[in-house]
Amino acid sequence: MNITREQVDALNAVVTVAITKEDYKPKVEQVLKDYRKNASIPGFRKGAVPMSLIEKQYGKAVLLDEVNKLLQSSLNDYLVEEKLDILGNPLPKVTEDFNWDADDYSFEFELGLAPEFTVDLAGKNKVTKYNIVADDKMLDEQVERIQKQYGKMISKDKVEEGDDMRGIFSNEEKGINNEVTLNTADFKTKTVAKKFIGKKVGDVVTVSTKGLFDDDHKLMDYLKVSHDEVHGLDIEVNFTIEEITTTEKAELNQELFDKLFGEGVVTSVEEVKEKIKEDAERQFAQQADQKFLNDVTEWLVESTSFELPAEFLKKWIQTVGESPLTPEQAEEEYAKSEKGLRYQLIESKIVTGNNLQVNFEDLKAYTSNLIKMQMAQFGQTNPSDADVENIVARVLSNKDEVKRLSEQIMSEKMLALYKENVKYKTKEITYQDFIKEMYGE
After folding, report:
1. Which of 44, 189, 236, 310 lies 20 to 30 Å from 249, alpha-carbon distance?
2. Cα 340 vs. chain centroid, distance in angstroms?
3. Nearest to 206 by CA among 238, 244, 248
4. Whole-structure pTM value
5. 21: burial class by Cβ within 10 Å (0-12, 13-18, 19+)?
């Protein structure tokens, strides 16, 4: 057997695998002998069928199968030995007049090669890492929400300022029909709020969606419409009142503080706000980190320049699905997947270049921490090591879970690497302003 490679250009090559009769003959003969031992053909005892008959009946199929096995294994071994970094899979070049009756065969495969490039994490960029803070307005709102949550709800006959209304927003043309609970203070203007004052259960109030709330994202939640649809939405919707309630707020006293945080942990409103701020900003940090990770990814894809073997990849895309694609369909699929492929190559380069790995000890420690946090949410603040280890073992016996957790760990390692090496700017921002930044508003 002889394998040679012709380098077409930096991103494309053709590998030729030449197989001689001596390469496949022993294996074919052995398989046919095994067939003969077990063949049941009328007129012959088992194991006594003439080899000429076995060869006539099975010879061609066995030849094709064994040559294909030999071809695949030798090609794979060659790619590993030559350390060729290929994209997709080798594509066999079709030979119209291929002769299976010959003794020796030659097969050609097209290869798409991964490009050579460098990733400059310290390069010039416009990436911003946000530090999201819980401002006084948010803290005051959270305290008031807690007072209402632990307060006493009272049903009412008609709406007054500050009351809650449970009802249904509807618009038949847009398919809107969503039950919500809102307060008269939720509306952007007092003019809209006044439309509800004095209304009773069963009354229907018609309002315009334009400028209904101070944030279009509230409109998304209340009407259950998409982010793209909500911007510029200017229609009339009906609100059918089903229930009117007001809440007698709970007093901000030690009894409430103990109920919220445990006996004696918090002793003043200021300490309550500090607790709320601490918890909120911990969650905000996770969201800020995710945006930072996404923004660095976008920047790397845009700033890291390299060519891809596009024509090869389009041909390969035609062959990989359950049914073949047309050249036009493959072109469309390539356009959709090119950006993702580019980042996969960039990420692989970063992972290899910085020796980022996820080992079993990483998995065990990460899974153990997740389980302890989940158990703490259900009041199990001090589980035994044995209980945690048993749960970890069950989780890590699931291949899908191992894959998911490994991706999370690698994402955290990438995030840490970016924080250390990317020259970003920082910006302190409130959560409301961060949401606007997220959606490009």
Report:
1. 189
2. 12
3. 238
4. 0.73
5. exposed
